[in-house]
Amino acid sequence: MLxxxxxxxxxxxxxxxxxxxxxxxxxxxxxxxxxxxxxxVRMLLESKGRVVTCGVGKSGCVARKLASxxxxxxxxxxxxxxTEAQHGDLGMVTANDVVIVLSNSGETEEVNAILPWIKxxxxxxxxxxxxxxxxxxxxxxxxxxASVEREACPLGLAPTASxxxxxxLGDALAMAVMAARGFTAEDYGRTHPGGTLGRRVLLRxx
Length: 206
Known about the structure:
Layout: H1 2-27, H2 35-46, E1 51-54, H3 57-72, E2 77-79, H4 82-85, E3 98-103, H5 109-112, H6 115-121, E4 124-129, H7 135-139, E5 142-145, H8 161-181, H9 185-191, H10 195-205
Parallel strand pairs: 1-2, 1-3, 3-4, 4-5
């Protein structure tokens, strides 16, 4: 029982440390929002096409969430897997599109392999990465700093603080564009005809 109690105490301590590290990582983002962020917002607002998000692993999960958030708040968007992009899905991207690529290291092979082709098509490129001097950061038209001091993982390996930071930065970008568009509750209801959110908005609009 004593060993079990010690194990629970260690687990609880790690859980609290995880939340502390992630909260600090997200809080530090606001100090880094500046000209690059404004350029990214303008790029999305001025785009005549769609937004394509891209990433692998945990960054891919965050990229999928970002596409969903953008699409539901007035900015048509979809997710493109970089591996599938190398086998035909690059045909989804046009010169009118903006591609948002997420990679903590900025050196993800599957992602960097398609960067020259994205540029060749003529699409604009926004990077969300932890290293501005990386291959991805240098290739992008705009690079947003999603760096973290350390991961919340006790091994320093699992993407934790970096994934949460990238997601928060993506949310900030989506909400900034939403506000600039003047997107209303009624507009939101039109993209959410089902579920509790949709019913709540539609009832309020009646």
